[in-house]
């Protein structure tokens, strides 16, 4: 007697459905922001229905929060995988600067999601334990890197890891979010391979001069 193959556990189906919804929502929110995003488009792209979206995420606002949490978790997880503690301080810092630049270049939706979150004064992540935890780990990682550099005499003491991270993020963030106006104002194409390489070299040099003993 033939037996029917076992059905996949319902929990795996639920996880797969939520993953599809989050992926579709990320595209929609990064393109149109929270206000312009449409749940019916998210449902269509996720091959789900609106009722299912609201079952898992309660509201469009809650879905936006989950997308933001995933976005911050993704970049923070990737940073942890750089294994900076295995490298000499200067090499480790350069790797972090280059990683941040390349992450923004390859993940433009991250920048637009952050822009959208700031338009709403970060209310969707203000109480997020996920964002708090991954951000704390990142600041600790940068702090330990700076401490190692001070111990070897390569970095000056007293550098706040939060301020350093803001600077590393800002010099890449501004470049990419203003690439269209910048190309007109400065009369050069800021997105050619040559321009991008020139800029990341400038960024690395700027950060190294900032921290050097």
TrEMBL record:
SUPFAM superfamilies: Homeodomain-like, Tetracyclin repressor-like, C-terminal domain. Residues 38-57 bind DNA. InterPro entries: Homeodomain-like_sf, HTH-type_TetR-like_transc_reg, HTH_TetR, NicS_C, Tet_transcr_reg_TetR-rel_C_sf. It comes from the Bacteria. Pfam families: TetR_C_29, TetR_N. Keywords: DNA-binding. Residues 15-75 form the HTH tetR-type domain. This is TetR family transcriptional regulator. It comes from Labrys okinawensis. The lineage of its organism: Bacteria, Pseudomonadati, Pseudomonadota, Alphaproteobacteria, Hyphomicrobiales.
């Amino acid at each position: 007697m033939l037996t029917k193959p076992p059905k996949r556990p319902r929990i795996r189906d639920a996880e797969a459905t939520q993953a599809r919804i989050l992926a579709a929502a990320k595209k929609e929110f990064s393109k149109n922001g929270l206000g312009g995003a449409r749940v019916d488009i998210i449902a269509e792209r996720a091959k789900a229905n609106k009722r299912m979206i609201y079952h898992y995420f309660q509201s469009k606002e809650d879905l936006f929060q989950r997308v933001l949490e995933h976005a911050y978790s993704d970049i923070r997880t990737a940073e942890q995988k750089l294994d900076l503690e295995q490298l000499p301080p200067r090499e480790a810092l350069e790797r972090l600067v280059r990683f941040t630049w390349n992450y923004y270049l390859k993940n433009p939706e991250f920048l637009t999601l952050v822009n959208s979150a700031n338009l709403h004064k970060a209310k969707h992540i203000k109480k997020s334990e996920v964002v708090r935890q991954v951000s704390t780990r990142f600041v600790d990682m940068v702090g330990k890197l700076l401490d190692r550099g001070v111990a070897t005499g390569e970095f000056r003491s007293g550098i706040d890891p939060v301020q350093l991270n803001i600077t590393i993020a800002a010099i890449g963030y501004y470049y990419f979010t203003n690439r269209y106006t910048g190309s007109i104002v400065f009369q050069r194409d800021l997105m050619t391979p040559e321009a991008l390489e020139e800029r990341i070299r400038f960024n690395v040099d700027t950060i190294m001069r900032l921290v050097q003993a």
